């Protein structure tokens, strides 16, 4: 007589092994557990979720801040004195960290769905802690150095909010949450359009003219900034005007330079190594003409555009020099364009420290450009400028009430794009005050400002903005309301259908007319509804002894 030894039969669970192995290094079956998660591991799960939320905001911030990457790099240059693209390592590490934390969060949710005990491996705990602390340090650093940039999140949501709402409503029905929390959040998603405001939700007949485009320092993505070639490239795009920073040389010649020194945009280190840290205004114009202002563009490639430029343009770029204000004004006159000038006063020991405004005014007057085509930003001696050149468009960088601006003779505001609300734009427009916002390099931002009613924008990417002939999207409040209600109804119908499908057996049992409590029928019905996880546990505990019994479940 053959006696069979007790055997324990297991089913292969490769997916579950990978799930628990990657998350907690529990690759063996005996290492897994269906017990409740300990409080310590619950705390780590909460930390993981908070890290995911923080990294999500941080990653989204850097995605929508692409419009201002060059501004961030310029801040770094002014701090360190060396030019480098600091956004590349930040975006790369943020993307890698976000992908890693997202994977761990997804694995944690899968653990909960599979009924497995959460047990994050200690290496992952170190990684989560490092990601959390690094992100917190990054958020604090950006808030201190570049705090105004956080408004880009709010503005981007104005451009994408309606579509994010629809996507959230569609996707949320697949989440597995507690019923009360699920219903509360779902109801919130259904009603969130009541709080969504976007300038692009408007009647088409209320849309104002397309904002004029000013090339900031020319077209600095196509040619070195503040060079004659850059201004020529910008004007060839049929834009409205040019914007530049003006300073005065040691011998009284106004020229164009944004930085305080010449180190970033010229080869002053080779030509005048002893003077490379001197203020740019302490160079004579003849010395400035000896400097090359194009080779740095090919070397540093500040906008990652050099590879896309034709060979002919590369040869021209190599031979660029510092551009004078007179040269830029002649280009503007030949193309019937406007200029927006921001002046930088020379240091106190400069020979033209007190005459810098008069030197600039003389150059403008001799260039022959019409006065109405000049937008004057400098606040100092504004009354003098108004007497000498009454036709200038007086422009201010200070946001003030309209009566105060009119009293100063200001007819235009030059502000950063996050400093103007829709209400501000309506007030200034009704008071005949034009608005120019800077620095607008992305199509979504240009489209949003167009809908908001901005008069003009200053851009480092005029070749990109000019391609947009109408807002990216525009819908009336009635159309958006119809889309909102339709999306909510479809989502509710799908949620209801999924609920009925998941509880089909219970509903059929209740509607089948089974009014008598037959124990056998109840047991069979319960067996049908038993979850696959419970069946697997029963299989693992099943011991065959005596004779073999084959049973298929």
TrEMBL record:
<keyword id="KW-0812">Transmembrane</keyword>
<dbReference type="GO" id="GO:0045666">
    <property type="term" value="P:positive regulation of neuron differentiation"/>
</dbReference>
<feature type="transmembrane region" description="Helical">
    <location>
        <begin position="481"/>
        <end position="501"/>
    </location>
</feature>
<dbReference type="InterPro" id="IPR017946">
    <property type="entry name" value="PLC-like_Pdiesterase_TIM-brl"/>
</dbReference>
<keyword id="KW-0325">Glycoprotein</keyword>
<feature type="transmembrane region" description="Helical">
    <location>
        <begin position="126"/>
        <end position="146"/>
    </location>
</feature>
<protein>
    <recommendedName>
        <fullName>GP-PDE domain-containing protein</fullName>
    </recommendedName>
</protein>
<keyword id="KW-0472">Membrane</keyword>
<keyword id="KW-0378">Hydrolase</keyword>
<comment type="similarity">
    <text>Belongs to the glycerophosphoryl diester phosphodiesterase family.</text>
</comment>
<feature type="transmembrane region" description="Helical">
    <location>
        <begin position="443"/>
        <end position="461"/>
    </location>
</feature>
<dbReference type="GO" id="GO:0008889">
    <property type="term" value="F:glycerophosphodiester phosphodiesterase activity"/>
</dbReference>
<keyword id="KW-1133">Transmembrane helix</keyword>
<dbReference type="GO" id="GO:0006629">
    <property type="term" value="P:lipid metabolic process"/>
</dbReference>
<dbReference type="InterPro" id="IPR030395">
    <property type="entry name" value="GP_PDE_dom"/>
</dbReference>
<dbReference type="GO" id="GO:0005886">
    <property type="term" value="C:plasma membrane"/>
</dbReference>
<feature type="transmembrane region" description="Helical">
    <location>
        <begin position="90"/>
        <end position="114"/>
    </location>
</feature>
<feature type="domain" description="GP-PDE">
    <location>
        <begin position="211"/>
        <end position="469"/>
    </location>
</feature>
<feature type="transmembrane region" description="Helical">
    <location>
        <begin position="42"/>
        <end position="63"/>
    </location>
</feature>
<dbReference type="Pfam" id="PF03009">
    <property type="entry name" value="GDPD"/>
</dbReference>
<feature type="transmembrane region" description="Helical">
    <location>
        <begin position="166"/>
        <end position="192"/>
    </location>
</feature>
């Amino acid at each position: 007589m053959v006696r069979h030894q007790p055997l324990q039969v297991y089913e292969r669970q490769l997916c579950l092994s990978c799930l628990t192995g990657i998350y907690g290094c529990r690759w063996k079956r005996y290492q897994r557990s269906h017990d409740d998660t300990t409080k310590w591991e619950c705390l780590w799960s909460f930390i993981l979720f908070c890290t995911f939320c923080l990294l999500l905001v941080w990653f989204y911030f850097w995605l929508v801040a692409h419009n201002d990457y060059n501004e961030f790099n310029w801040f770094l240059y002014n701090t360190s004195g060396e030019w480098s693209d600091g956004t590349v390592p930040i975006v790369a590490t943020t993307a890698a960290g976000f992908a890693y934390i997202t994977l761990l969060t997804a694995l944690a949710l899968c653990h909960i769905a599979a009924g497995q005990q959460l047990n994050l491996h200690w290496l992952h705990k170190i990684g989560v802690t490092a990601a959390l602390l690094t992100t917190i340090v990054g958020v604090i650093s950006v808030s201190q150095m570049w705090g105004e940039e956080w408004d880009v999140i709010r503005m981007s949501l104005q451009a994408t909010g309606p579509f994010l709402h629809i996507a959230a409503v569609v996707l949320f029905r697949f989440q597995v949450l507690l019923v009360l929390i699920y219903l509360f959040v779902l109801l919130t998603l259904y009603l969130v359009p009541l709080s969504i405001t976007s300038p692009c939700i408007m009647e088409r007949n209320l849309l104002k003219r397309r904002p004029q485009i000013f090339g900031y320092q020319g077209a600095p993505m196509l040619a070195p900034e503040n060079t004659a070639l850059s201004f020529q490239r910008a004007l060839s795009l049929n834009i409205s005007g040019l914007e530049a920073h003006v300073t005065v040389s040691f011998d009284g010649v106004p020229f164009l330079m944004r930085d305080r020194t010449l180190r970033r945009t010229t080869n002053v280190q080779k030509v005048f190594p002893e003077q490379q840290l001197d203020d740019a205004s302490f160079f004579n114009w003849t010395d400035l003409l000896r400097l090359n202002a194009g080779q740095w563009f090919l070397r540093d490639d500040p906008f990652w555009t050099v590879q896309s430029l034709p060979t002919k343009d590369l040869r021209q770029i190599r031979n660029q020099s510092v551009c004078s204000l007179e040269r830029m004004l002649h280009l503007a006159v030949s193309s019937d364009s406007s200029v927006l000038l921001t002046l930088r006063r020379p240091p106190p020991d400069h020979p033209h420290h007190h005459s810098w405004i008069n030197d600039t005014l003389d150059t403008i007057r001799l260039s022959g450009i019409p006065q109405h085509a000049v937008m004057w930003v400098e606040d100092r001696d504004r009354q003098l400028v108004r007497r000498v050149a009454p036709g200038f468009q007086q422009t201010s960088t200070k946001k003030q009430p309209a009566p105060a601006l009119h009293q100063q003779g200001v007819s235009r505001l030059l502000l950063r794009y996050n400093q103007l609300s829709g209400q501000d734009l309506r007030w200034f427009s009704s008071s005949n005050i034009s608005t120019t916002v800077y620095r607008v390099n992305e199509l979504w931002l240009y489209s949003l400002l167009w809908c908001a009613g901005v008069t003009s924008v200053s851009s480092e990417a005029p070749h990109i903005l000019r391609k947009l002939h109408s807002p990216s999207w525009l819908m009336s409040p009635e159309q958006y309301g119809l889309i909102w209600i339709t999306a909510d109804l479809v989502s509710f119908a799908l949620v209801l259908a999924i609920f009925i499908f998941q509880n089909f057996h219970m509903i059929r049992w209740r509607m089948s007319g089974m009014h008598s409590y037959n124990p056998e029928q109840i047991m069979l019905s319960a067996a049908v509804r038993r979850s696959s996880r419970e069946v697997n546990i029963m299989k693992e505990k099943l011991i065959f002894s005596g004779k073999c019994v084959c049973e298929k479940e």
